[in-house]
Design goal:
Elements lengths: L19 E10 L3 H12 L4 E4 L15 E2 L7 H12 L3 H25 L11 E6 L10 H14 L5 E4 L12 E7 L3 E2 L2 H14 L3 E3 L6 E4 L4 E3 L31 E2 L5 E2 L3 E5 L2 E10 L5 H4 L8 E10 L10 E4 L4 E5 L10 E5 L5 H4 L2 E6 L2 E6 L8 H14 L8 E11 L6 E4 L5 E5 L5 H17 L4 H5 L3 H4 L9 H4 L2
Parallel strand pairs: 1-2, 1-14, 2-8, 4-16, 14-23
Antiparallel strand pairs: 3-7, 4-6, 5-6, 9-10, 9-13, 11-12, 13-14, 15-18, 15-21, 16-17, 17-18, 19-20, 22-23
Helix pairs in contact: 1-5, 1-9, 2-3, 3-9
The chain binds flavin-adenine dinucleotide (FAD).
Length: about 500
């Protein structure tokens, strides 16, 4: 049994780390789905781009997720409507609908990139089943079926082509005695996230993007205006945990300083930035922070906005029979599963994840303690290693969902760190520092929003109209990169 991601369990040769100096139009920090997609879009538009990745491309959450491509935010649609109505009043319902539509657009963009660059990544569009279980779990709604039915009704009213399947209609998933009903969205899909993102990276390299792996960014300097970063002792601590409140991280340089001009590559220019790494530095016009959960490690302004949460998963040894198609999301998303397409024959491994609801404190990346009247932040996290407690919870849930499969040996167990925002929407756009842009805070839904978000930001940097912004009226408000911080401990699970 391997204690690391099944997706990453394949041969790979990383690019060399940055050494010396370089000039580009845009530096992308982070080689996950966000950063690599953004780099590709920018290169398609003629920009000179460098991607700096602390470890290897797709080694963050991108290489550790379930590979689900789901429409909508992580909660039931009825909850998305309720939460957005709480936050934005009468506009909330329309915003929930747009969030769903944006995710569908995101899916189409991803499928388009796969086709354009001939990326083989085990992509299937067999739909998703948002399940009501007969055994509601800790933290899930007491009557999940009622939430599913209400979500179905609202979605139909809002014009979405979804189906409701009752217990008898769940033909595809007859293998579990635990299922009470499901919302079926036939437009959802699944993929091998590492094959996909490394395929994108190779397409981007072909367009001239320079990749530097094993290259942690330690700070960003805005010439004449200070910078972003936590000091040269660096944040390349990845999985190691440790305290994070080292000094030297002041952010300065207000907005509105820059007159937008154009460089030769077509990228608008707000002025000079320098990105520092242990082996070298890059001068650039723009920086794109594609670091999701890790953003606060480099930019303290996102500490109260993006909260790291660990998610854990296991895969079994392959089953030769195809047990089911599609992806399954149960008990308010606290449990999820699918069967992979890695053979033998029509079959594949089962992937099962969740269990965080039983161990919320341990699975949150950092905590606040009170000591002698002072509030102190402690880091337990950014640890990706799987824990016995959560994996046991997952085993129990799997065994009760699939009693006849309980004896299947587990092949891989792993964890990954997600970046949660308080309202489930990502932060997308220019930060308080001119030229520094962010695309992060996907709240467990990077495969639903990262591509659209990367498209929006790259269009802005390339100075061209954004089809996403034209098409979706509320997107700027919902994705606002400057919206408030949170008392996330109390607000997010
Ligand atoms: C167990 C699990 C299951 C999930 N399932 C799903 C799912 O089925 N569907 C879905 O849509 N989403 C899912 N997610 C969430 C999804 O994985 C993320 O939303 C998405 O991968 C975020 O991509 P990203 O590129 O923004 O961030 P990441 O993939 O985390 O990439 C950020 C990168 O930045 C790098 N980095 C950080 N700091 C620095 C630095 N200082 N210098 C240089 N590089 C740096 C990191 O090494 C990392 O590679 C899941 C997540 C987990 C953990």
């Amino acid at each position: 049994m391997i204690r690391d991601s099944y997706w990453l369990d394949m041969p790979y040769t990383p690019s060399v780390p940055l050494s010396g100096e370089l000039d580009v139009d845009v530096v992308v920090i982070g080689g996950g789905v966000t950063g690599v997609t953004g780099a590709l879009f920018l290169a398609e538009g003629g920009a000179r781009v460098a991607v700096l990745e602390r470890r290897e491309v797709a080694s963050g959450a991108t290489g550790r997720n379930g590979g689900f491509m789901l429409a909508g935010t992580h909660e039931y649609y009825v909850e998305a409507v309720e939460e957005l109505t709480d936050l934005y009043g009468a506009d909330g319902r329309r915003m929930a609908g747009e969030a769903w539509r944006i995710a569908l657009e995101n899916h189409d963009l991803m499928a388009g990139l796969m086709a354009k660059y001939e990326i083989q990544c085990d992509y299937y569009r067999h739909g998703s089943y948002v399940m009501a279980m007969k055994r509601p779990d800790r933290g899930s709604h007491a009557d999940p079926l009622e939430r599913i039915v209400r979500s179905y009704n609202l979605l139909r009213e809002d014009g979405f082509d979804v189906e409701y399947l009752d217990e008898n209609g769940l033909y595809d998933i007859k293998h579990s005695p635990q299922l009470a009903g499901a919302l079926w969205n036939k437009f959802d899909g699944e993929l091998h996230p590492v094959k996909y993102v490394r395929g994108l990276a190779s397409a981007a390299s072909g367009l001239g993007v320079r990749f530097f792996e094993n290259t942690p960014v330690t700070s960003i300097e805005r010439r004449g205006a200070g910078g972003i970063g936590r000091g040269a002792d660096g944040n390349g601590r990845g999985d190691s945990g440790g305290r994070g409140d080292s000094g030297g991280r002041g952010v300065s340089g207000g907005r509105g300083v820059s007159a937008v001009s154009r460089t030769g590559s077509g990228v608008s220019s707000p002025g000079g930035l320098v990105v520092h790494t242990p082996g070298g530095r890059i001068r650039t016009q723009h920086v794109l922070l594609g670091m999701n959960a890790y953003t606060p490690q480099l930019d303290a302004r996102y500490e109260r906005r993006i909260i790291p949460h660990r998610g854990q998963v296991f895969t079994t040894e392959p089953v030769s029979e195809r047990l089911f198609n599609g992806v399954f999301y149960a008990n308010d998303g606290w449990e999820f599963w699918r069967q992979l397409h890695d053979g033998p024959g029509e079959g594949g491994r089962l992937l099962f994840g969740g269990g965080r609801n039983h161990h919320l404190r341990a699975e949150r990346g950092f905590h606040f303690l009170r000591r002698r009247g002072r509030r102190i932040r402690t880091y337990r996290g950014y640890k990706e290693r799987p824990t016995r407690a959560v994996q046991r919870s997952n085993d129990r849930a799997f065994n009760s969902t699939f009693p006849h499969l309980a004896a299947l040996a587990r092949s891989h167990r792993w964890g990954g760190v997600m970046g949660f925002s308080y309202d489930s929407s990502p932060f997308v756009g220019e930060t308080e520092t001119p030229g520094v842009h962010i695309v992060a805070g996907f709240t467990g839904r990077g495969n639903a929003y990262a591509t659209v978000a990367a498209r929006m930001v790259s269009d802005r940097l390339l100075g061209r109209p954004s089809a996403v912004e034209d098409q979706f009226e509320t997107v700027k408000k919902v994705f606002d990169p400057l919206r408030g911080g949170i008392d996330a401990e109390n607000r997010r699970r």
